[in-house]
Specification:
A seven-stranded mixed β-sheet has the order 2-3-4-1-5-6-7, sandwiched between helices. The longest helix has 15 residues. It is of the alpha/beta class and 163 residues long. Bound molecules: guanosine-5'-diphosphate and magnesium ion. One of its GO terms (molecular function) is GTP binding. It comes from Silicimonas algicola.
Length: 163
Amino acid sequence: MSFTLAIVGRPNVGKSTLFNRLVGKRLALVDDQPGVTRDLREGEARLGELRFTVIDTAGLEEATDESLQGRMRKLTERAVEMADACLFMIDARAGVLPADEIFADILRRKSAQVILGANKAEGRAGEGGYVEAWSLGLGDPIALSAEHGEGMFDLLQVLRPLV
Ligand code: GDP
Ligand code: MG
């Protein structure tokens, strides 16, 4: 069975951008349960020599009657259950927001194996948020720029012993 990494975090931190970078065109859809296809995207990731399955928690951006917080919890818990490890992404430009703390709590309660990624860290604008990320108590953050492909080597180094 292949190693599965779930990318989790609040809307707009860059989850799908990273997912697309890792997966390229090798996109497959999760089809086991109703609603999951829309909310969780699964693909075959390539990073350096590593091959693994990656899950993007999409579907948070859609407007529904249910609160965003409720959807975030449900989807994240489901992704955590499907995954061997989670890449929890924050937006280094925005810093740590209350919504990020909610994810940190979910991940702690589920005792998920967490890799913390501070995305949008290209240039200087992300420096404050990168430092703030330590306050989440989830270990050393990796500075990433999903858009520009920065930090991929550091991500590879962290994933290599796990995959
Ligand atoms: P998601 O909602 O977490 O899936 O976030 P998206 O991948 O849709 O990205 C949200 C926005 O952030 C988009 O406008 C992206 O272009 C932008 N974005 C993603 N990664 C980066 C990055 O590394 N740096 C910057 N500056 N913007 C990024
Ligand atoms: Mg997305």
